[in-house]
Specification:
9 helices, single chain, TIM Barrel, alpha/beta
């Protein structure tokens, strides 16, 4: 059994949401975590989870590249997110997609936009801490600031999504938090990702999650197709093969079971 811990199936164009959901079992996909990006789409995520109980689980949050629309309304925005959670506790399993993204930031207005990202980042962490929800971390070109804020607020229940850093940073995050999970997207299958592959091969098994980030980042084997949750099998197998090549003594059954249990535990399913 598999759980795709990070999907954006509302953005898929080749298949409808319901077509994707109906086909999950063909590849033993037990559940998916539905990730949206702002107040409006967070509610859509909840509606999808309500319509597909125990298969779809929602997250609520505001992506760092989408916070400009809420500039000057931080308190009201957090209140709206909190209300959304309290009205849908059985269906909301995390706060996402938050943290820093310095890739798309306006370089001519870097400091102001960084401060805005940090303000929303911190406020959403505090909301997650209040209700013991996991934080799904989006960190792009910003690993030091990401870890700094996590430590500052002592936020330890977090997932480093679509991991793209090196083994040293992974160990620093793991050392800081016994609850930290590291999620590998299809990037781990790419030939251009030896640093990420080294991380997957070496970190403790009880820290590993897998995700598609669909419809983005299709795995190497189907690189030019639209990504779907069923492709989770490819990067799960890739991570297993990397660990076998690095002399890890895990059977496939042990590995698959532990990654599934890691997902269930962090999302409290």
């Amino acid at each position: 059994m598999l759980i795709d811990t990070h999907t954006h199936i509302y953005l898929n164009k080749k298949f409808s949401e319901q077509e994707i959901i109906s086909n999950l079992w063909s590849d033993s996909i037990d559940k998916i975590i539905s990730i949206w990006i702002d107040l409006k789409t967070s509610q859509k995520s909840i509606d999808l989870a309500i319509a597909n109980p125990k298969i779809i689980y929602a997250t609520i949050w505001i992506h760092p590249t989408d916070i400009k629309q809420y500039k000057g309304n931080l308190d009201e925005t957090i209140i709206s997110l909190e209300k959304m959670y309290l009205e849908n506790k059985d269906f909301v399993k995390g706060i996402w997609e938050c943290w820093f993204d310095f890739h798309w930031i306006d370089k001519d207005n870097f400091q102001e936009e960084k401060e805005l990202q940090e303000a929303f980042f911190s406020a959403q962490i505090e909301l997650a801490l209040k209700y013991d929800l996991p934080i799904i971390v989006h960190s792009r070109n910003s690993k030091e600031d990401t870890l700094r804020v996590l430590k500052k607020l002592n936020a330890k229940k977090f997932i480093l999504h679509c991991y793209s850093e090196d083994l040293d940073f992974a160990y620093r995050a793991i050392y800081f938090s016994s609850e930290c999970k590291i999620s590998f997207s299809w990037i781990v299958t790419y030939k251009s990702a030896p640093t990420i592959q080294n991380t997957a091969a070496n970190i403790p098994l009880d820290r590993i999650l897998v995700e598609t980030d669909c419809p983005f980042l299709p795995p190497q084997d189907v690189r030019w197709s639209e990504n779907i949750p069923n492709n989770t099998k490819y990067n799960l197998k890739k991570v297993f093969d990397l660990r076998q090549a690095n002399w890890k003594k895990e059977t496939w059954e042990e590995f698959e079971k532990q990654v599934y249990e890691n997902s269930m535990k962090i999302f409290d399913i």
